[in-house]
Write a structure and sequence with these properties.
Rossmann fold, 4 domains, eight-stranded mixed β-sheet, Calcium-transporting ATPase, cytoplasmic transduction domain A, about 850 residues
Length: about 850
Amino acid sequence: MASETASAPAPQPGPDPGAGGPTSLQELRRLESSLRGLTEAEAEARLGEAGENVLPEARTASWARRFARGLRDPFTSVLLCLGLVSATVTAWGTACVILSLVVVSCVLRATGEHRADRSMAALRDLVATTATVVRRPEADRPPREREIPAAELVPGDVIRLAPGDLVPADVRLLRAGGLTVHQGPLTGESAPVAKSAPDVPGAFGGGPFAQPHLCFQGSSVASGSGTALVLHTGARTRFARAHGTPAARGVSAFDRSVHGISWVLIRFMLLTPPLVLMASAALRGRGLQTLPFAVAVAVGLTPEMLPVIVTTCLARGASLLARSHGVIVKRLPALHDLGAVDVLCLDKTGTLTQDRPVVERALDGDGKDAPEVLHWAAVSAWWTLQLADLPAPDALDEAILDAADGAWEDCEGVAALPFDPVRRRATAVVRGGLGMHVLVVKGAAEDVLERCALEPAERERLLARAAREAGDGLRVLAVATAERPARTRPYTAADERDLAFRGFVTFRDALAPTAARALKDLAACGVSVRILTGDHPGTAVRVCRDLGLHPGRVRTAGAPDDAAATVVARCTPEDKARIVTDLRAAGHTVGFLGDGVNDVPALHAADVGVAPRDAVDVARESADVVLAYKDLTAIDHAVAAGRHASGNIASYLRVTLSSNLGNVVAMLAAGLLLPFLPMLPAQVLAQNLCFDAAQLAFAYDRPAASALARPTVLRPRDFLRFITGFGLLNAVADLATFGVLAFALHGPDALDDDAVFHSAWFTENLLTQGLVMLLLRSGRRVAEGRTPGPLGRAAAALAAVGFLLPLSPLGSLLGLTALPLAYYLMLAAVLALYALALWAVKARYERRSGARR
């Protein structure tokens, strides 16, 4: 028999589930199976052909590949080119410094992302670990049920489903009894969906997930039981296909901003050496003699520490988030994107709510509170659970029992008819008065009222009342009772007639404990929330109201202006991705929080995708940020950390670029006006090295609260405007220093010493850069805080180097010399005037921008 199995043709894939309507017998024949299941030999052969029933393993880049990927950053590439040019002109010191910075930056970035991947690996688990399968040891032996790893399932297997089971593959139901399936991870629906096993499926409508005879990997059994035929496993399941969806994310907010700034600087850097060479050749006849100086000037314009500062700020923020709040940042630039987020899109189910209902009210037919209705509902729920052949309490029963708090204890149960998705009712039979039984029926309003002894007009009025409650975002159960003479023969659905209507029990989604506070905090820091849900619009609006969130415009997916609505209901996965894409196209930086397969396209489409740790595998792997718990307060902490890191990066860029631009302008002017080089190449590089070392303090600075109160976006145009204004102011200070030095060197007591000029300008440059570090940092003024902090200490160290290096032996090696006391007094006067001008210009800039930075 084994040889026959091995040579038998492999089962053909067949149509996609939901794409056609074959009968169960046709499906069994197509897969060469039967209700008795496959034999062990057949299953083993098919496992070898189809492969294990596991998700395609996501490939993670190696550390070396991540390091090489860091070299493709445009700014890092330019630094490499400058290093090679420096080596070409034998400026070995410059080349070594530049290449060291590049290596440090790439190592930091690759190490941070590699560490995040290892943390993610610890979170991964299988969709389903085991499954109950029906198989035969031999073809002529009876079938038996046994538990096997879900990875060993093959197409054609027959499996059993019970409450709490995870559906291990895409299956077609052969038998079902009261089966409901929670497929929220696939569709976003908060309520379980009834499933049945019609032999001939009806006309298709609503997509494959709406088909009652199909269940898909990633869903779970809420109640009831079933027998199913495995249709697809492994990479052919819908879950796996979503897992393999290629990332559609375009250029992120971080990439757009940093690349924009980088390319502005690259143009300056590429133009600077030719301009210096041509000007020197035309005016001074120096030609190629000034090539090392021209390269040094270009390096001086370059914020060499940009890759290091950016990576250090982001890696430090990600490390603190992981330690303090259990938030794993898988892609370091995503932390900046979180700081720039101004729209956060999320699903309602499981994020704003706890994935379980709670009782809102028990009311009579006139809408008045009626505690006895809750009593009868609890009697039905309790005795159905105790007496049913297959006890399977659903979430509504649990909510009723929690709210009733033992109200059923005064009744004695006799029999029960469990909930049936076809009847949409559940009935408990309890002892009533002498010789009487009481039937307590609860279920969908339409089905229960249909069985009540009511006039048509009254029935319509009660149905309208139920519809109003449902339209207000509540789920509604109707409760009715009937007295029957006591008997011993079993009760059936036929006994559910001539009922006396008691009232309604309404339910709302239980709110996440921290959701209301988190939403207020997000709104306070300039992040607007959009709810994209697969639920009914009324349900979503109700949750918004309960949380104190104004729902604003509410639309269903596909209606015009989806992107402008606060709540978009009935969303498919494609709708969510489209809305996120539209928001990004409108200029927003968008974050998306999702946990199901249906959220994967939107996670890819957002600037930054966020998923909780207990999300399905595909959602976790698609996300850029993973939360330890599904808690919006963690998002708030992550946004604050992103703004903290982005604020420090913005400070670094403002300070460095404005200072460097001023120095370059001053050097070019001095090179054209002076008969000698304004600063030797070695002195330029030493100055840059000191400034670069001091700038590492930006990674440890604490921006002011005002800098964290709104999204932090690095806009190239704003930076260009800022660095142009403050860079020219810096150049004016340098030129003023030139004037003072020219008067001192060539005045009545002229020293006529180039070394004195170089030393004075070297000292003045370091002092002005220290001032700029303190005055132009994000959102803080000089007087804020009693302790100097990292930047204060770095600026003090920079000033100390400026004063002491010309006096040291190392200074003489660089061509520097000690300055007379009078020169320090003149420099102090220039610096004081520069500080006042810088403070005044900054105050005017802040007033014009409308906010402190």
